[in-house]
Amino acid sequence: MxxxxxxxxxxxxQRIVMTGVGLTSPNGNDIESLREGLLNCRSGVQPYEIRYVxxxxxxxxxFPATQYQSRKDARRGTRAGAVGIWAANEAVQRSGIDWENVxxxxxxxxxGVTEHGNVxxxxxxxxIKGFDYDTQFWSHHHNPRTVANNPAGExxxxxxxxxxxxxIGAACAAGNVGIIQGxxxxxxxxxxxxxxxxxxxxxxxxxIFASFKSQGAxxxxxxxxxxxxxxxxxxxxxxxxxxxCLYVLxxxxxxxxxxxxxxxxxxxxxxxxxxxxxxxPNPERQAQCVEMALQRAGLPADEIDIVSTHATGTASGDxxxxxxxxxxxxxxxxxxFNNTKSFIGHTMGAAGALELAGNLPSLDxxxxxxxxNLDNVDPECELKGLVMxxxxxxxxxxxxxxxxxxxxxxxSVLIVRKA
Length: 419
Hints:
globular; 33% helix; Peroxisomal Thiolase, Chain A, domain 1; 2 domains; 14 helices
């Protein structure tokens, strides 16, 4: 197959670029800190204790939550809203756009989430139990905290954005899907600027930990930094993490007009569904999703320089994804594979967007960050080009492919290229 790169043939009004990124992660609160941790093989996983589950491990974000919102608003709102507000404001600041003069009725907010409302519901039930379940002690803030559009709505209120806002429930594929929605809405002319990506407050709910623990899918290790070990023969589950990563997306024509610094251009994407199981992935459908994204881009597999894998550290999930990747990239000599969850755990709804951010600097420095904690590769997870334990300098990095998959069989793939 000859590389065509169909996106390059589109008019500038249909080409979508990233001009700003804001994030909070277990490894830092900006792309520079996240990247520094990835290149220095530093894990952000730490001990964590949550009621009813007890001692466990998690990826925890530490950012100045009241930098962009008042303490009162932070108390009234949600953790998902707080991480989203931080990331959205940081993304706009870093985009260099003249925010004071932006028509905010033409700004869209598209936030991917895994789940939302569990934290607040659990906390309210826990609190009301101490008052013999008397509902007069139930918070009147509960409903706006738990409605499905909450994280995007909190961002809209905080930033005075009057264009469309909504959240996209796409399980752990949500970070990619939020970006994809932003691309589509810009191309349709529904907005002129999109704030898009994913957020997660997952570590604040004991239900997620309890569920993974009951499945035998919650990672443990005497050294917390070694707990998340995708592809390793001794991997034993997921490290649950929180985080957020949002991008400012613009049409290339608008970005050129204002002389914006472009982080990357979004070349292609794909979303499909396994339709086979609640939890277990389907490698055939995952491979089809990757192939769809490549076909839409007009790119052969060997044009992809780095594949950011979804692998979470579970026995079946990692092996199934590798089976899909071997099918698509068989014979691709240039393609390298890495995994960001090994550093920060699984940030659920934020995962796709955060993991893409960790790889974006590769377009400039030509360094592929590794998968860490990979001491003994599981034979079922062998991938030619898998970068292990130390960063690797590459001859060329032009295209990145970002995998992000989720429960109930949702698969998402995003391809970006050097601007």
